[in-house]
Amino acid sequence: MTYEPDPPTRRYDPAPPVDPAYRDPQEEVVHERTEDSHARRIRTVRIITSLVSFITGLFAVVLAINIVLVLAGANPDNGFAAFIGDFAGAVSLGFDGLFTPESEKLAVLLNHGLAAIVWLLIGAAVNFLVRRFALPTGANRTVSYRRTIT
């Protein structure tokens, strides 16, 4: 008894080409590249939200670095520590002096920590509002059509 292998099978059988004789001569399928204003708007909204996230995140990071420098006892006469301290004072949203405990380190922790959290909340709120009101509605939008030539 001899064993004959099965003929090889093809995994992918493409659809047979359509015979032009079976096509409706009055119907033409049109493929056009169109300018989608929704795609441009979505791209613009993403850029804006990225910028808002970057800026508010940067402010929160500067405040956090200032907290770490003050808690670690960094030399305030150092150029880097002075720059971070001045920058943190400028972006502290007026929270400097909100809490006045006995320790200066605890005051910086509370005041600048609260300012950093508020910056992150401001960034999240602005991003939510921009996405909510600037993004187009109708996520399942399809642009396709058939055109009949007469």
From TrEMBL:
State where composition is biased (Basic and acidic residues): 21-35
Cite the entry's keywords alphabetically: Membrane, Transmembrane, Transmembrane helix
Q: Does the keyword Membrane apply?
A: yes
- The ranges of region (Disordered) come to 1-35
TM annotation in the entry: 47-74, 106-130
Q: What is this protein called?
A: Uncharacterized protein
Organism listed in the record: Actinokineospora soli
